Target: Hydrogenase assembly chaperone HypC/HupF
Amino acid sequence: MCVATVGKVVEIRGKRAVCSFRGVLREVSISLVPRVKLGDSVVVHAGFVSEIIKDTNNYYHDLVATDALAGQILDAIKRENTKMHHRHVRLMNFCGSHESTVIRYGLRQLLPENIELVSGPGCPVCVVPNEEIEMGIKLAKSDNIILTVHGDMMRVPTGLGSLEEIRAAGADVRIVYDINEAIQIARECSREVVHFAVGFETTAPATAAAILEAGGISNFSIISSHRMTSPIIQCVLQNCEVDGVIAPGHVAMITGLKPFAELNKQFKIPFAISGFQPIDILHSVLNILIRINEEKPEVFNQYTRVVNSGGNLEAQKKIEQVFTVQDDYLRGFPKLAKSRLVLNRRWSKFDAEKKFNLRLNEKKRGQPDDSFCGAVLQGAMPHQCPHFGTVCTPVNPLGPCMVSQEGPCYASYHNGTE
Model:
């Protein structure tokens, strides 16, 4: 009863709000603090928001800066840094949750100046090309169709506007927390329900499991924007100077260590499979530095409490049962081999692209959009964008990196960092 936690308000519903607790969404009451606004960081106790955190930067920074274990790890990082004579080291994370933690807890400010942390293309909403979102927009404009999406997809701008804009104009676009909620909507109505499925290997098993359990539902289908992690990491490492990789622990939870071992063998730089707490990331940085100094570019599994070497075999099996892998584009990337998961022939009745004869705009495939997101997804810092914080803000975003809570621009803007 006495344990309170901190969440970020992502949706307001009258006297209640939906809060994100590091990605876990829960509905809470705001009746005690009715002044709560979208985007506020709040203290939640027993299902009620009890206060708004006024200075989130200092709040989170102090949690780490005053932690004894964090202090020990930072001291060890300084010792390893001395061994390498304070040379510049560039480490890249490939998960939006990692980047959110790095920014929220001020980890860049706690590390030596010569150790540079850069974000990669780990935001699942950010990598979805506009052409795939536009397919959903075109469908949603049909009277007989309900389009279900995750909240972060709503405000991504495209050449056809955003899903939020067409909903305001009368389209039936609904925010759901998972694919099962979308299937339930289909079971309870006669209209066609199309779910926009996004994410990497972390969320693909849930989509696969739901499809396997959907049975004879005839009015449900998906647009699959699921992506594979390895081809994206491979492309970035081929084009960026990186000394070590902080790898996504939740992807490794599903895939196991094999994909990262193969990348490690190809690029011969240290990989740390990392958890998502600030201590996890600092521990991963330390172990990468140790391996740089020892000239042992190995894969280090920092997230052993969750990740085993073989991964989740049942989840892998479900992905193989339902999906096939095809070459495709991502936002800001060229066409990557075996990068997109689409429903295989056996489950094609749930494939909205086939069901509604949808066609991607091939002329636009792989073409840059008007935002700086493609560069940010490959290691550029948000403040390097000439529009960051001025023309491009969370209220008027030019691209998904300023929309999604896992987007590096969104995180930098809300935490007042560069």
